Amino acid sequence: MSVLVLHGPNLNLLGTREPEVYGRTTLAEIDEQLKAQAAAAGVALSSFQSNHEGALVDRIHAARIDGTRFILINPAAYTHTSVALRDALAAVAIPFVEVHLSNVHRREAFRHHSYLSDLAVGVVCGLGPQGYGLALQHALSRLDPSPS
Ligand code: DQA
After folding, report:
1. Is the CB of 74 under 6 A from ligand 1?
2. How far apart are CA 134 and CA 121, in angstroms?
3. Residue 91 CA to chain centroid, in angstroms?
4. What is the span of the domain harbouring residue 96?
C-alpha cells in the first residue's frame, strides 16, 4: 500500500524558478516532508518528477501494478495541455488529488483550464508547498483501514 507523488515539467527547478510565484522551497524538500508525513502514518511514499509527458504516462501505468493506492499529482504545464495524462489516470483508475503551488485561477487565462480536475478526487491550489501536505493528509485518511 503506497502513495505516489508525481511532479511535472520544470518542477525540478523549484527553489530558484520564479520564486515570487512558486516560493523558495525545493522539490527535494517537498518530497522529504511528504515522505516523513507518510512514514509517520506507516505508509510508503514514492515520488517521481519528469519533464517528459511520456515518462509520466509510463509511471502512471506502472502504478497499476506496484501497489499504489493513491496519487498526488502536480502536472505543472501538462495540466493545461495533456489529454495523454488524463487518459492514463482514467485508465489506471487510481484516485488522485491534483495539486498546484500557485493559485492558477488568479493567473493567465490559459492556466484556468485543467484536463485532469474533473477526474480528480479534489484539487488544491494556491497554498504553496503546504498544499501537498494537505492533499497527503486526505490520501492517508482514505487509506486508513481503521473505521472512522
Ligand atoms: C503549476 C501551475 C502551472 O500552470 C504551471 O505550468 C506550473 C506549476 C503550480 O504548481 O502552480 O508549472 O502547476
Report:
1. yes
2. 13
3. 17
4. 2-66+78-123+131-143
In a domain, 73, yes or no: no
Q: Which atom of ligand 1 is nearest to the CA of 9?
A: 12
d(Cα 26, Cα 7) in Å, to the nearest integer?
A: 12
Q: Which residue's CA is minimally distant from atom 9 of ligand 1?
A: 100
**How high does pLDDT run on average in the chain?**
96
Residue 44 within a domain: yes
Q: What's the structural domain count of the chain? A: 1
pTM over 0.90: yes
Any known ligand binding at 74? yes
Instruction: Please report the atom of ligand 1 found closest to the CA of residue 74.
Output: 13
* pLDDT score of 23 more than 70: yes
115 in Cβ contact with 85 (< 8 Å):
yes
State yes or no: pLDDT of 148 exceeds 70.
no
In this predicted structure, what is the pLDDT of residue 147?
A: 53
Asked if residue 22 belongs to a domain, the reply is yes
State which of 102, 110, 116, 117 you would mutate to test the pocket of ligand 1, scoring each by most atoms of that ligand within 8 A of its C-beta.
Answer: 102
- Catalytic residue numbers? 22, 100
Count of alpha carbons within 13 angstroms of residue 59, beta-carbon side:
22
State the ipTM, two decimals.
0.99
